[in-house]
Amino acid sequence: MSDYHYDVLVIGTGPAGEGAAMAAVKQGMRVGAIENRGVVGGNCSHKGTIPSKALRHVVKQIIRFNQNNLFHHMGESTRVSYPKVLKSAKTVIPKQVDLHTGFYNRNRVYLHIGEASFSDDNEVRVRLPDGAVETIRAKHIVVATGSRPYRPADVNFNHPRVYDSDTILEMNHTPRHIVIYGAGVIGSEYASIFAGLGIKVDLINSRERLLSFLDDEISDALSYHLRDSGVTVRHLEEYEKVEANERSVTLHLKSGKRLRADALLWCNGRTGNTDNLNLDAVGLEADHRGQLKVNDRYQTDVEYVYAAGDVIGWPSLASASYDQGREIAMAINGEECRFVTDAPTGIYTLPEISSLGKTERELTEARVPYEVGRAFFKNTARAQISGEDVGMLKLLFHIDTHEILGIHCFGAEASEIIHIGQAIMNQEGEANNINYFVNTTFNYPTMAEAYRTAALEGLNRVNRL
Asked: Which of 14, 57, 241, 325 has the highest count of CB atoms within 10 angstroms of its CB?
């Protein structure tokens, strides 16, 4: 048995854990980290963000090839098997592991590889792969263990035709037809990926519309383009049971519908990874989703235990998790910290979506006088050149003050484009003003000039009042 003592001990090496560890080291603290995989990176690098977005990128390249007339003389459109696409996408994972391992090495954060659990106040035990146990004491402990797909007890995930968003990255065949249960962010992303490979997709949504937290116009655009790519979207449906055999899997819905396919992808919720932490030992309790409650300084009900990332729930974004981890280091150091509430959404469907601020529905319900400025990508030179002409940029601004209230983008590189507007929207006072985009010269041709077009279009509406 070995004993270690740290100022800060971080459990988990995903975005939140890494953010906390690196920021704490920079502030002169002695930091240790625990990871239950053999390598760092967490679910973000190995099961979630990185592999799924790399998979999407490969599929997007295939779609672009098939749509480009320049290559049509080579024969019919290219069809690539899912295992081949997956193999190509996974090449990025070792690069990410090497990159993040370097961060821990250079900053002298000691890594403990094993399963962590609380044993006493300020004390954590780590069961190593060989069965040995290390005891670690720390003044402050950060829980950044992430989340995993929710698995209802009545669905057999051991069956080779039933997958969740982790195990789908190990599927070794190409289904002709796949049913995706759950039309949240992950389900919608995978629906567009599989449709891009020419696979028949049924997307089952338990709500009235797709991604109802989005601006209605953006949600409608996503729904249209998914259907246009061959996805069958079924709203207001709930599962009753799943039956699987060696030839197919059948999803029985409460409405009486039966959907038979080659594979089922379950994307209905996530669970915080807290069940193996022995939280009772320090007087902590997770909620029914396995998540921990924190205050505005990311402290749990136990003063010296902090938590960040997916394990605390919303917004469950890698981008927000990095910031949450860094803010914990500030809080531990006795400084002011920011509770992250303004992270833009980044949804990597095909085309992708990003948004920040209020939606039209929210502004209408709040009786805020606003106007809309739109720029359609099909009318921008850069989009016409690149062939990425699907989508639009939408700006919501106050009629009287011209303050930007919301930014919504649907189309290629939306998650990049959003940051230009974010920079202006976050300015204080009169500096947050849609006139910035009218009075600033943008490179031409670029996607960024959509801001000027949208601003002019919106201001013209106001001037006609």
From this structure: 14
